[in-house]
């Protein structure tokens, strides 16, 4: 058993996460109590106290899980030398950082506005928060796209350029047009009408987009990355299927009554199973990405062409569905990997030797790896 003081860094880190989460929760509960008086005058608007508490609990869990999950990914790669050797993990760490910023800088303020149905931070911070929202969620999607691409010929310079692009390109569809008001051109009257639909004594942070911005933003932030991901994962699936067929043909050709299983055959069978598992994992990743983001970006393009008739509640639901993707990414890209899971246990259990790399009779058992379409997947 380890001395208690050896766990102090982990305890302090956990207390730090809990303090941040408690601060947000306390602020929300304070706003809820202040709003009880207003509910008596606006009984048909917004949420009741019970609904607010339920919603607060759900959003707090989502935010906390996103923060902890993405922090674990970043710390695990920084501490584990073997994880740092895999090129894919540079994108995973940068993805975790983007998702962490979403869960710290965007989601809490969105939760406060959603629960309270009022924006209390002023018009300028509304623009900043909206710009951060577009920037960080787009950067997250770009990282998902880079992870799916062929990295067989990747060099440190190319990796650095791709990472820089993941952060720089979203700036041109977030801070630049939003701060300049390009998204409002031609729809100022629609925005003012939307603001009047809220309580007359409260302010709101309304973000609406005209047709040019809706199309440009959606194409850059979602449809192009989506197309590249579909193409990349389709190639991975086809390659894995071809490998499996080739292995099966070789096994049938070498199967004779007097033949015995050779080590090469056993290795081929193991590789086929590993590649099949990798292809299935990629399908799960792609499915979750589409499920979380497709509703929002389809609505984002359609709404300006139907006179902005999509209900605000639908917008909010689709937006938070996309936010949830930032909390799912650590599970999809890291928790499905046994090397990451072991690194997480070491961190959470304060370097407990029981969770060091497993061995049998003193020999280390490496994780299974497969390379499909130039992408190395570490599986068990």
From TrEMBL:
Broad class of the protein's primary localization: membrane
Instruction: Output the SUPFAM superfamilies linked to this UniProt entry.
Output: Family A G protein-coupled receptor-like
Give the molecular function GO annotations: G protein-coupled serotonin receptor activity
Q: Which GO terms describe its biological process?
A: adenylate cyclase-activating adrenergic receptor signaling pathway; chemical synaptic transmission; positive regulation of MAPK cascade; regulation of appetite; system process
Q: Which residues form the signal peptide?
A: none
**Membrane topology summary:** Multi-pass membrane protein
Can you tell which superkingdom this protein's organism belongs to?
Answer: Eukaryota
Annotated keywords: Cell membrane, Disulfide bond, Endosome, G-protein coupled receptor, Glycoprotein, Membrane, Receptor, Transducer, Transmembrane, Transmembrane helix
Concerning InterPro entries, the annotation shows: 5HT4_rcpt, GPCR_Rhodpsn, GPCR_Rhodpsn_7TM
Q: What PROSITE patterns does the record tag this protein with?
A: G_PROTEIN_RECEP_F1_2
**Residues spanning the membrane:** 53-78, 90-112, 118-147, 159-179, 213-234, 281-302, 314-336
Q: Which GO terms describe its cellular component?
A: endosome membrane; plasma membrane; synapse
Query: Which cellular compartments is it found in?
Result: Cell membrane; Endosome membrane
What are the G-protein coupled receptors family 1 profile domain coordinates in residue numbering?
69-333
Function of the protein? G-protein coupled receptor for 5-hydroxytryptamine (serotonin), a biogenic hormone that functions as a neurotransmitter, a hormone and a mitogen. Ligand binding causes a conformation change that triggers signaling via guanine nucleotide-binding proteins (G proteins) and modulates the activity of downstream effectors. HTR4 is coupled to G(s) G alpha proteins and mediates activation of adenylate cyclase activity.
The cross-references to PANTHER family, in alphabetical order and at most eight, read:
ADRENERGIC RECEPTOR-RELATED G-PROTEIN COUPLED RECEPTOR, OCTOPAMINE RECEPTOR BETA-3R
Q: How does it assemble?
A: Interacts (via C-terminus 330-346 AA) with GRK5; this interaction is promoted by 5-HT (serotonin).
Protein name from the UniProt record: 5-hydroxytryptamine receptor 4
